[in-house]
Amino acid sequence: MKIIYYSSPFYADCDFPLIGELQRRGHDVRYYISVASFSKRSTLIDLKELYPHTGIYPAREIYKEFHEFRNILDLSHVYVVNQRHKQKFHPANLLLMVRLVMHFLKQKPDVIHLIKPPSLTQKLFYLARKKLVLTIHDPFLHSGATNKMTERDRRMAFKKIPKLVLLNNRQSSAFASYYHIPDNHVFINKLGMYSSILYVDPLPFHSDRPFILFFGQIVEYKGVEYLLEAMKTVHGHYPELMLLIAGGGKYYFDIEPYKKLDYVRIINCYIGTGKLAGMLQTCEFGVCPYKDATQSGVVQTAFTLGVPMVVTNVGALAVAVQHNITGLVVNPCDVNDLANGIMELYSNKEKLNAMRIHIKEEWMKDMGWEPIANEYLKCYKA
Q1: Would you give the DSSP letter of residue 363?
Q2: I need a surface site. Which of 19, 191, 306, 329 has the fewest CB within 10 A?
Q3: Which of these, 9, 78, 83, lies nearest to 43 by C-alpha position?
Q4: pLDDT at 273
């Protein structure tokens, strides 16, 4: 089967093992990844400088950073859609998308797999609508992320693309009902282990006190303000415990008072995979205080390194994290419940260690990419 898979660096940690698995099975998978100034440092991809020309290029020829993943992917079939200009509406970027669509169509693939609804000149993809598959990472947009153009593009994609893949079953009925999508257009799959992090050398992370970890981009729906408030209560009972917040992004609330707290450490920048691996190997456990969500790659990343999580009961997080087995599930936007969950897990080392063992011995068995690839192939052939 000839598959063209068009994605973004933001999804590299779930794309790489999937593409690698499909390639190992002998399928002709051409993986295209769009790179721009705002995405050159995200998840696994850490490009120090943007290649100075707009166009479509073999990834290994213009970015040596891809070589680190040569044992996961066949890099001879990985291409970068390189956008030198920052402006979304720049004529060179619009023309590049036209060229990209034509480039895909000339290859006569069986499937063109997208991970974002087409926008602007990308809507030319609808010329091959019968070949299109769309993975929908967010069945419903996060709080603070809604705008009319994005929602219009989503609705058009959901109407025109015949195969829509959701990554959890918990939201499928609500999604189909809200967007008036026939049941036979929706396919259910899941996220597997974010195993690419295992191929990266962890950088040692030193802390003079035990800490819990929030990591990822700072955006409004992630509820960091609730976590910071919860830590005030936690500190009253366990003054030795520190909260580490690691990730880039603009804070949407006044962060200055929290910077003065000696039990809070904030690293507000992009965290490379090696550095993140070191933090995860050193922390007590991770925390996702999200106000709303679908599924989360944060959970998959943490579990891949055997780290339990405290998460809020939003989206499919309560499915990804089994309460009292691989972590704890608490109420969203509830400072007291979040604080109690953190204290419960931190104070019970036996329970915490049992969770680590269960993740390594049971969770990992069910999170390989072989069955996930099987489900995608069923979708492609349906």
Answers
A1: G
A2: 306
A3: 9
A4: 94
Strands 78-82 and 28-35: parallel
SS3 of 19, please? helix
| Residue of 101, 362, 330 whose CA lies nearest to 233 | 330
Whether 290 contacts 314, CB under 8 Å = yes
Could you tell me where the beta strands, DSSP code E, fall in the chain? Answer: 2-7, 28-35, 41-42, 45-46, 55-58, 78-82, 111-114, 132-136, 163-166, 186-188, 211-215, 242-246, 264-267, 286-288, 309-312, 327-330
Three-class HEC string of 46-64: ECCCCCCCCEEEEHHHHCH
d(CA 302, CA 286): 7
Kindly tell me if the per-residue pLDDT of 87 is higher than 90: no
The sheet with strand 28-35 has its strands ordered as: 55-58, 78-82, 28-35, 2-7, 111-114, 132-136, 163-166, 186-188
The Cα 60–Cα 66 span in angstroms is: 6
Give me the residues paired with residue 333 across strands.
Answer: none
pLDDT-derived band at 355, boundaries 50, 70, 90: very high
SS (H, E, C) 248-268: CCCCCCCCHHHHCCCCEEEEC
Q: Tell whether pTM > 0.85.
A: yes
Tokens, residue 364: 């990992």
- Give the integer Cα–Cα distance in Å for 178 and 192: 27
Average pLDDT of the residues of the chain: 95
372: phi then psi, degrees, rounded to nearest 5: -65, -45
Pairing of strands 286-288, 309-312: parallel
Q: What is the C-alpha R_g of the chain? A: 21
Q: Give the separation between CA 91 and CA 23, rounded to whole angstroms.
A: 35
